[in-house]
Amino acid sequence: KVDAVLARVQAIRDTVGRDFGIGIDFHGRVHKAMAKVLMKELAPFNPMFVEEPVLAEHLDAIHEIAQYGAIPIATGERLFSRWDFKSVLIRGGIDILQPDVSHCGGITEMKKIANMAEAFDVALAPHCPLGPIALASSLQVDSVCLNAIIQEQSIGIHYNEENDVLDYMLNKEVYHFKNGYCEILTESGLGIQVNEEFMKAKSILDSKWRNPIWRNEDGSFAEW
Q1: Predicted TM-score of the model (pTM)
Q2: Which has the closest alpha carbon to 91: 100, 79, 101, 102?
Q3: Which of 31, 103, 127, 176 is catalytic?
Q4: Rounded distance, CA 120 to CA 197, Å?
Q5: Cα angle vertex 193, ends 188, 194, to 5°?
Q6: 31 catalytic per annotation
Q7: Catalytic residue among 27, 58, 63, 176
Q8: Inter-residue contact 166 to 155 (CB < 8 Å)
Q9: Is 158 designated active site?
Q10: Is residue 79 within 8 Å of residue 99, measured between CB atoms?
């Protein structure tokens, strides 16, 4: 399996050249010993970063894993407060923090996490494989953080099968990407206009679905 991973990364590097940043996401799906092996073997390909080499439950191993390859390590999407991030930063080994605005407590909390990371000389790359509101919120934080280096987004990505991020918006043009960059959102609020009719059509509140806990004793649905 290691050889298969290396072959794929080699193929990507051969295609895009040495100046193209490649992020490799482990999704926390390997154990510590295998993470060490992969970090060492992937180093010659000069990845931009390795993401989540282990699960959040094992972040105490990050400092140890970091010794096995000169590759920046990114993590944080499964952490939920500034205190979680504080522990990670104190232990060391992390180069890029990836708080998710939808998980970590919103815009204010993510800004505090970003500032704390800056004090540890750690970069910010908000996690956001989500919709336009989360993306706009993340970009607003990016725009005021000196340590922000890259922003994840899922516009046009392969797993948006039924609808895309832009379908939720009226002013789709604000997400204009050029050479990998997105302009700062300057319209009122977060900088986006939500397509409320589309949202209503997609909302579970307008469907017949109900959480099982809201069923009556006879099996019928309770009113909310």
Answers
A1: 0.85
A2: 79
A3: 127
A4: 44
A5: 140
A6: no
A7: 27
A8: yes
A9: no
A10: yes
